[in-house]
Amino acid sequence: xxxxxxxxxxxxxxxxxxxxxxxxxxxxxxxxxxxxxxxxxxxxxxxxxxxxxxxxxxxxxxxxxxxxxxxxxxxxxxxxxxxxxxxxxxxxxxxxxxxxxxxxxxxxxxxxxxxxxxxxxxxxxxxxxxxxxxxxxxxxxxxxxxxxxxxxxxxxxxxxxxxxxxxxxxxxxxxxxxxxxxxxxxxxxxxxxxxxxxxxxxxxxxxxxx
Length: 210
Prior knowledge:
Layout: H1 7-19, H2 23-32, H3 46-56, H4 58-85, H5 90-105, H6 118-128, H7 130-147, H8 150-168, H9 178-190, H10 192-200
Helix pairs in contact: 1-4, 1-5, 2-3, 2-4, 3-4, 4-5, 4-6, 5-6, 5-9, 6-7, 7-8, 8-9
């Protein structure tokens, strides 16, 4: 019982379970009557929600895509902010961030299936590395506008965060940058199929403004 009395352990478990909440699945089923886990890329993230819902209800697709993006980011933000509120160490907060991301990518509620992790990574990083994350967000926005390839834009945004951390931030505030690299590895790993399609020139474009 002493194990579950440890505040760090409690937050690690909560972070994973909160991160596991599949908002894309819930919103698409509730408002559009579709199952995103069996359509499109089968991802639970905003891009697949947008793409799948657009097939049957274009007017609703953008709204649900934006809502999914916001909620997936917010679940990461809230668990990190809650950890800050109770006074968790910065090292522990990075652990909370990683577990929230793992929850999204390998959801406890979807038999360890999940999304690509971009929005949730954004949600945790905006708290822990605000300036590099804002820069990375700008890189993503410009890339998305120009390239109209969601996966490539997301990966470029992630690179923007890492490079900005090297240039503008004094590391992560802890002894190592490894937590950031773990987050980057998870997101890149989940994007391997997309990367293969990008190399082959087969990755689909998405009209984000439609």
